[in-house]
Specification:
The radius of gyration is 18 Å and the shape is globular. The two termini are 36 Å apart. A hairpin with a 6-residue loop joins strand 4 and strand 5. It is mostly beta strands. This is Zn-ribbon domain-containing OB-fold protein.
């Protein structure tokens, strides 16, 4: 590819201050992270298992209320390598010192995917179909950050 021309970057400082509820399904999902456990939901009609959980089945549109514990192992279905991140102080983009790998992980026994970081692997070594396992923080608090990343197994 040639050099990009006429590219405009606009810097807008971001100072958003608000709070919102993640809803009862994601609330339970996040609280279970404190126990280093992943919980999804299973459709009573077609049997699809969703992680992250959702209230309505995407396949048959049935309300889902059954919670199931999900394996912390899965498969990389897709991934991307990020070279930049949002610069919240200045607005615009900030170059990362080290690239971050963002994966689409399909946990064993589920029918959906979870988006999360991959760690302990170089970008050139990541492959679609690679088996991975969740890596947890040492002292989880019941928040999304309790699941640090996924590593190859």
């Amino acid at each position: 590819m040639g050099e990009l021309k006429n590219v405009v970057e606009v810097k807008v400082p971001i100072a958003a201050s608000f709070s919102w509820s993640v809803g009862k399904y994601m609330d339970r999902y996040i609280k279970e992270l404190k126990n280093k456990k992943l919980f999804g939901v299973k459709c009573p009609n077609c049997g699809c298992v969703y992680l992250p959980p959702r209230m309505i089945c995407g396949r048959c549109f049935t309300k889902i209320e059954e919670w199931v514990e999900v394996s912390d192992e899965g498969t990389v279905e897709s991934f991307t390598v990020a070279q930049v991140k949002l610069d919240r102080g200045e607005g615009g983009l900030k170059e990362l010192e080290e690239p971050e790998i963002i994966g689409l992980i399909k946990h064993d026994g589920t029918d959906s995917c979870l988006v999360h970081r991959l760690g302990e692997v170089k970008p050139e070594d990541v492959k679609i179909g690679m088996k991975v396992q969740a890596v947890w923080t040492d002292e989880p608090n019941g928040e999304l950050g309790d699941l640090k990343y996924y590593k190859p197994i």
